[in-house]
């Protein structure tokens, strides 16, 4: 606990305290306090009640909110307190000087019976501050008497420790140390019905330490030190010293001559009656001297000074009002403004009558209102005289040196105030700059200090003459005494002046540990080993040799989670958090000294989630149905497992390599398959269900659906609906033929079984085979094969009925062998043409024109500013040069590579692989499953129908993918991407315009401001950072935005059931053809549902009612220009919860609904 010495050390300038406890009264107080033999009473770490009784006692409350009474005569009563008596009589207890204990008094026996109260603690009383100068004290079951004071109570010492303590010193000269907490202290408990004589009052010492404390000095001269916190100090009767310390404090001297020092903070000081000394110190303070001749010094900051009645003195030092303007108001008495330092020529005084503005340095200004004289450099002026003196100083020439000056001795202008220090704790004291005055202008004073008897200062105490500051720490075992200290000021001529003050030393007591710089928050990723050592500077203890003991728990008092260990010896936390440990933890770290005093720090620990990919759970059960039957199957909740708390999985379903059949629908929101299998759809469906988390990680499950043929009432045989055209095969050349799917038709739509024989029913020739599952003939005819073969295809339904048709196959002789050629182009750009074989054509270092012709050709342009390469039919490999090339693949599965600046690439039908260069390429790929990879530059890519994979690098690209299941991955830049029908996957960086066609599409962007229109289908849009405009189009769409961006979500009637999650930033939902009174708001679990009246259209905002408001949309805008802000949504939800939503088809509110909801609609929409 801090003592007065600490508080004095915190005060910037006690230099203006000129008369504290005259007659060296503080020395008397401390001599009385610490020259006795104490009785020691120790409290627990909980809330205790401690009675000191008569005599001098030492009490320590320890942790908890304690009630400590220095003396006391208290009479609680109870029929239920089971001590050592159980009579059903009213029991009361009183302190007995004879017994030295609390004793019991009963109605049947007035003798004093001892009652054991261990360690001086009694029952669990409660107390609270009430009113401005009073308190309420309540026993658990009542209070019989208000008699609270005992004569000859003695000088008690109380240390409240931690907690909100209540202390009453009562009679005697007491010392009270509040410790941490919001404490209440009374020097004399004289606010109750029973008071004591003046002779029983004492001179008390109170130290509040940390917390918002309240102190009441009572009679005689008391010392009240608030310490840190916003304190309220009342000196009451006597010449008191009040020290506010750090914080915004209220100090009231009340009666007699008091010294008030606010310390740092915005303080309010009221001197009251008597001649008071008011020091504002740092901060913007209010000083009111009250009655009497007062001394007021605001100190640093913008202060308001008012002297009140009496002849008051207002002190202003250089830099007190730097950059601000303070005020001094005083119309009563003869008042004086005292200026310290500065130069007349740098001052300004303007005004008239009682209103003046005084600028006493280049940066210091004070406004004066009232009656004031001004004193500067030892001379007094009226305001008019000071205006003249300033003017004369600015006009007068420099004073020539006096050839024979007469040195005059310095004088004591302001006597020094007495001070106090606590042994074992650092103490500082500043000698004020205006303590001494020298009548000789320009003379410089040199300062020195000794003990009052002329001997040197003790070894522990030093004096810095340059800063006029004493500092040091008195040893804890130093004799209990006070020091008389003399300060001497010597001028340049050796003449001296001296003044002295008394430093009272109080006994050392246990210092409370102090928390250092707040601990910075720390974080750890899940599944990552982590250690953290609390810095050694996190706590300090003012007592030399004290060893601190550390403990750690959660801030709510619970133990640390199982994964987290704390080694108190090394102050080290360690552990490895799992997925289930993801949380924001507040950890309380307590450091306790051997006496049980402690300080705490809070450590914020964030256990961050690391995305875990979802996993497949229980396998999906196979489904079976007949043609014509409906299916409704929900993906079970346990089909996919995601261990990340709060993760949201998005579901998609498709056949392996193809979309679902048109008759089968999958609702990605509910996870339900539905539909009715039409006739002719019998067979097996292999469906892949994919779950994707918000980070894009996926898991998949296979779902097998078997559709069996419907059983017809009357079977009709299949029919031939498309006769076959003749076919041709070549000797020694592989040949294949697939029976067209529409060759046969079954009237009942049943599945057909196929077979192939020769036309006469005999088996096929040995070189020819038939795959019934794929309806494909294949083989290689030899030279001995017949020139003509007639093949009969038959189709049989499940009932055995069949139909057949014949294919005529002509076998031609093998053509002459082709010749593979190798040609090197010349430097004159002579066209090079390959043959029908597999040719190798190489260009020159000039521009080359080459055509591969038929065959699987290789064309390579070595250089040249502009090459023209045409691969022709066949699977060609084409490589361009460094110029602006034209590269054409022709029919076949081609590989085309551009190396030039600006290439034009054309590929025909076939599955082509196209690789652009670093320049601006133009790619036109035909139908087929193409792979297109263009690097940097501004590229234009057009792909035909087919399942294409298109990748672009950094640049402003234009990409169009035709119909099919396309995958587009665009790099940074300003890109324009469009796709045709199909289930497309689009990923893009940069600023993009993306339009996808019909299909269940997945669109993912990163950091740019994107404009996305997903078109028809159940789409998933995962938008990254940037201010995005997002439109889902027809279908049940999902919007996921995990980055902090300002997004605009567009919604139109008919768009279906959309839902939005992870909406960060300032987001807007814009409803393009909906009025404000056509929306219905309701809570669904933790989600917010917004429905368009009379339609199945809705928007579900997930986690709206969770703890994190990042899931909120900030604005809702309708087509009629209305706007709904986020904070008005709940009003609509509450109002509409009293009604059922309007039925389907009713697109406006009914009359009754209009009347009931009109006020809240008008108040919410603007």
Task: Average the pLDDT over all residues and give the rounded result.
Answer: 82
Ends distance: 59 Å
Say how many strands there are. 101
What's the number of helices? Answer: 5
The portion of residues forming beta strands comes to 35-45%
**What structural class do helix, strand and pairing data support?**
mainly beta
Walk me through the structure:
A hairpin with a 5-residue loop joins strand 58 and strand 59. The protein has a 26-stranded mixed β-sheet that branches. It has a 17-stranded mixed β-sheet. Strands 70-72-74-76-78-80-82-84-86-88-90-92-94-96-100-101 form a 16-stranded mixed β-sheet, with no helix packed on it. By secondary structure, it is mainly beta. The chain has five helices and 101 strands.
């Amino acid at each position: 606990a801090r003592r007065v010495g600490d508080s004095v050390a915190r005060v910037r300038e006690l230099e203006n305290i000129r008369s504290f406890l005259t007659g060296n009264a503080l020395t008397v107080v401390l001599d009385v306090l610490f020259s006795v033999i104490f009785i020691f009473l120790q409290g627990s770490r909980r809330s205790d009640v401690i009675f000191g009784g008569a005599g001098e006692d030492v009490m320590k409350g320890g942790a908890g909110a304690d009630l400590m009474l220095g003396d006391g005569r208290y009479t609680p009563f109870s029929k239920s307190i089971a001590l050592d008596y159980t009579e059903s009589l009213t029991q009361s207890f009183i302190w007995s000087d004879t017994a030295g204990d609390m004793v019991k008094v009963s109605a049947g026996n007035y003798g004093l019976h001892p009652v054991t109260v261990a360690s001086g603690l009694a029952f669990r009383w409660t107390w609270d501050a009430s009113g401005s100068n009073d308190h309420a004290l309540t026993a658990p079951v009542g209070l019989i008497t208000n008699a609270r004071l005992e004569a000859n109570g003695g000088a008690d010492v109380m240390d409240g420790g931690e907690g909100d303590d209540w202390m009453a010193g009562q009679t005697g000269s007491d010392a009270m140390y509040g410790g941490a907490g919001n404490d209440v202290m009374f020097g004399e408990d004289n606010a109750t019905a029973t008071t004591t004589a003046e002779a029983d009052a004492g001179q008390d010492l109170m130290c509040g330490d940390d917390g918002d404390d309240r102190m009441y000095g009572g009679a005689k001269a008391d010392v009240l030190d608030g310490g840190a916190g916003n304190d309220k100090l009342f000196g009451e009767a006597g010449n008191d010293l009040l020290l506010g310390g750090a914080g915004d404090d209220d100090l009231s001297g009340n009666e007699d001559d008091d010294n008030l020092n606010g310390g740092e903070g915005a303080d309010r000081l009221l001197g009251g009656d008597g001649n008071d000394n008011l020091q504002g110190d740092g901060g913007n303070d209010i000083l009111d001297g009250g009655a009497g001749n007062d001394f007021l010094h605001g100190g640093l900051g913008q202060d308001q000074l008012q002297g009140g009645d009496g002849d008051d003195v207002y002190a202003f030092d250089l830099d007190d009002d730097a950059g601000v303007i303070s005020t001094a108001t005083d119309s009563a008495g003869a008042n004086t403004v005292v200026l310290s330092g500065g130069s007349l020529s740098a001052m300004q005084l303007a005004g008239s009558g009682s209103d003046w503005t005084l600028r006493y340095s280049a940066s210091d200004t004070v406004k004066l209102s009232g009656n004031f004289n001004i004193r500067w450099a030892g001379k007094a002026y009226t305001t008019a005289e000071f205006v003249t003196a300033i003017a004369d100083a600015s006009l007068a020439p420099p004073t020539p040196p006096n050839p024979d000056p007469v040195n005059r001795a310095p004088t004591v202008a302001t006597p020094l105030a007495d001070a106090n220090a606590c042994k074992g704790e650092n103490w500082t004291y500043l000698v004020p700059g205006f303590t001494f005055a020298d009548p000789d202008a320009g003379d410089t004073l040199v300062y020195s200090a000794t003990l009052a008897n002329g001997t040197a200062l003790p070894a522990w105490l030093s004096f810095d003459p340059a800063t006029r500051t004493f500092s040091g720490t008195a040893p804890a075992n130093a004799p209990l005494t006070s020091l008389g200290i003399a300060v001497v000021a010597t001028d340049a001529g050796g003449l001296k002046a001296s003044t002295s003050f008394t430093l009272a030393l109080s006994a050392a007591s246990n210092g409370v540990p102090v928390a250092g710089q707040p601990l910075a928050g720390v974080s750890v990723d899940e599944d990552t080993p982590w250690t953290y050592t609390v810095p050694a500077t996190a706590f300090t203890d003012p007592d030399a040799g004290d060893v601190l003991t550390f403990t750690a728990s959660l801030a709510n008092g619970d133990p640390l989670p199982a994964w987290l260990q704390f080694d108190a010896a090394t102050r080290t936390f360690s552990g490895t958090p799992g997925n289930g440990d993801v949380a924001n933890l507040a950890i309380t770290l307590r450091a306790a000294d051997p006496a049980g005093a402690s300080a705490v720090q809070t450590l914020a620990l964030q256990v961050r989630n690391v995305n875990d990919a979802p996993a497949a759970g229980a396998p999906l059960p196979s489904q079976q149905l007949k043609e014509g039957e409906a299916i409704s199957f929900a993906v079970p909740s346990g089909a996919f497992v995601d261990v990340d708390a709060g993760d949201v999985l998005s579901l998609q379903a498709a056949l392996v390599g193809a979309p679902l059949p048109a008759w089968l629908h999958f609702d990605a929101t509910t996870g339900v398959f539905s539909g009715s299998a039409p006739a002719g759809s019998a067979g097996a469906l292999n469906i892949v269900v994919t779950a994707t988390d918000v980070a894009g990680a996926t898991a998949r499950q296979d779902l097998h659906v078997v559709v069996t043929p419907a059983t017809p009432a009357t079977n009709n045989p299949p029919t031939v609906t498309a006769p076959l055209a003749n076919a041709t095969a070549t000797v020694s050349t592989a040949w294949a033929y697939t029976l067209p799917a529409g060759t046969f038709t079954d009237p009942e739509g049943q599945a057909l079984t196929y077979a192939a024989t020769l036309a006469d029913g005999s088996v096929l020739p040995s070189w020819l085979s038939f795959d019934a599952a794929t309806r494909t003939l294949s083989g290689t005819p030899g030279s001995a094969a017949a020139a003509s073969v007639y093949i009969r295809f038959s189709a049989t339904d499940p009932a055995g009925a069949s139909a057949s048709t014949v294919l005529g196959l002509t076998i031609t002789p093998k053509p002459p062998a082709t010749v593979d050629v190798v040609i090197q182009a010349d430097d004159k750009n002579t066209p090079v043409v390959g043959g029908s074989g597999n040719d190798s054509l190489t260009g020159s270092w000039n521009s080359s024109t080459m055509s591969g012709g038929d065959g699987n050709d290789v064309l390579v342009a070595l250089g040249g500013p502009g090459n023209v390469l045409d691969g022709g039919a066949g699977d060609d490999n084409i490589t361009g040069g460094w110029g602006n090339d034209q590269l054409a693949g022709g029919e076949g599965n081609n590989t085309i590579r551009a190396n030039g600046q600006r290439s034009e690439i054309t590929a025909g039908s076939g599955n082509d692989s196209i690789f652009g260069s670093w320049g601006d390429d133009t790619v036109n790929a035909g139908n087929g499953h193409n792979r297109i990879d263009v690097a940097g530059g501004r590229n234009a890519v057009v792909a035909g129908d087919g399942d294409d994979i298109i990748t672009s690098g950094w640049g402003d690209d234009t990409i169009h993918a035709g119909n099919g299941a396309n995958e587009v991955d665009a790099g940074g830049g300003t890109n324009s991407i469009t796709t045709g029908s199909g289930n497309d996957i689009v990923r893009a960086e940069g600023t993009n315009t993306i339009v996808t066609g019909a299909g269940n599409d997945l669109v993912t962007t990163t950091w740019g401001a994107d404009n996305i229109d997903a078109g028809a289908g159940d789409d998933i849009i995962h938008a990254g950072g940037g201010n995005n405009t997002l439109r889902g189009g027809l279908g049940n769409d999902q919007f996921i935005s995990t980055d902090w961006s300002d997004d605009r979500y567009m919604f139109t009637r008919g768009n279906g059931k959309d839902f939005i999650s992870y909406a960060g930033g300032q987001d807007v939902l814009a409803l393009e053809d909906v009025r404000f009174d056509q929306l219905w708001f309701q809570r669904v679990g933790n989600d917010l549902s917004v429905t368009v009246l009379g339609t199945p259209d809705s928007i579900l905002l997930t986690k709206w009612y969770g703890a994190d408001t990042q899931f909120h949309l900030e604005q809702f805008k309708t087509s009629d220009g209305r706007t709904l802000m986020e904070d008005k949504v709940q009003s609509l939800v509450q109002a509409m919860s009293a009604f059922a939503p309007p039925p389907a088809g009713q697109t406006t509110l009914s009359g009754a609904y209009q009347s009931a909801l009109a006020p809240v609609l008008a108040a919410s929409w603007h």
